[in-house]
Amino acid sequence: MISDKMNAALNEQINKEMYSAFLYMSMSSHSNGMGLKGFASWFMVQYHEEMFHAMKLYEYIHSQGGQVTLLPIAQPPAEFDSALDMFTKTLAHEQTVTQSINHLMDLAIEEKDHATRIFLQWYVTEQVEEEENDNEIIDQLRLIDGNPQGLMMLDRELGQRPANVPVDFSKGVAAGGEE
Ligand code: FEO
């Protein structure tokens, strides 16, 4: 069982995860337009990860007898200056998501809601991983400094990122195998 306040906060987090998916889908499209197919693929993998994050929350709310209320998803930006600009914005966005997860965790602790605290632990770990990945790519892009050959090499590398989350949620988030 979760409180009404926690239920509402988790619903808001679903919205943030779905906005993240939209943002990375937009970056994927922009990468395609730049001829960076590997970047486009990386961002589309990230899109699926964000939908998975949203669906885990969706299922958790149901498992606790709560109610999922879907909120409007804001329009993401469509234009970016460069690959570095996209990853700088990705990291900045993930830092806001980390803050949001931390606030949820604070609420779970305040409410002595141990089940939600344990559930959110997965997201705390995930955010550390995401920020680390983004920082690594930003470092590489800074080293490349716009050099087309370096960019093409990184593009090939990012294109290798496998999709390791389920994409069909009709049987639940665990049905397709978790990452
Ligand atoms: Fe759902 Fe990128 O954190």
Structure characterization notes:
The structure is a single chain. The chain is mainly α and 179 residues long. The relative contact order is 0.16. The protein has a single domain, classed as Ferritin, core subunit, four-helix bundle (Ferritin). The protein has helices at residues 4-33, 37-63, 83-110, 114-144, 148-158. The radius of gyration is 17 Å and the shape is elongated. The structure holds MU-OXO-diiron. The site of MU-OXO-diiron has 7 residues, from α1, α2 and α3.
Hetero groups bound?
MU-OXO-diiron
CATH class: Mainly Alpha
Q: Write the CATH fold name.
A: Ferritin
**Which structural class do the helices and strands define?**
mainly alpha
- Give the uncertain stretches in residue-range form: none
List the helices and strands and how they pair.
Elements: H1 4-33, H2 37-63, H3 83-110, H4 114-144, H5 148-158
Helix pairs in contact: 1-2, 1-3, 2-5, 3-4
The structure holds MU-OXO-diiron (FEO).
In short:
The protein is mostly helical.
Features:
179 residues; mainly alpha; Ferritin; binds MU-OXO-diiron
